[in-house]
Amino acid sequence: MNRFAKALFSGRMIKTAQCLPPAGCDAAALKDLFRALPPNLDAVVVADNPDRIRGSAFSVAAMLRKEKQASVILSMTTRDRNRIALMSDALGAAA
Fold this sequence. Notes:
Layout: H1 3-10, E1 16-19, H2 27-36, E2 43-46, H3 57-67, E3 72-74, H4 83-94
Parallel strand pairs: 1-2, 2-3
């Protein structure tokens, strides 16, 4: 059971933060983003292009899980995807 699931079942207040993927492809920007996240979060919400074109939310979520061992809540914006793209993204995220 991950940290987020444990927090849900404990009944205590859950601490999350939302992060926006960088607008470019600079790896240093991702490292800065990861360093800025507090260590005591139960989960990190990764937004999917909320305001303008940004890097892939799926990629950032996968890197967060790998590098910070963080529980991740991935947002999926449906306005820019058809049914096939949504299914493909959901399968990729599950993998």
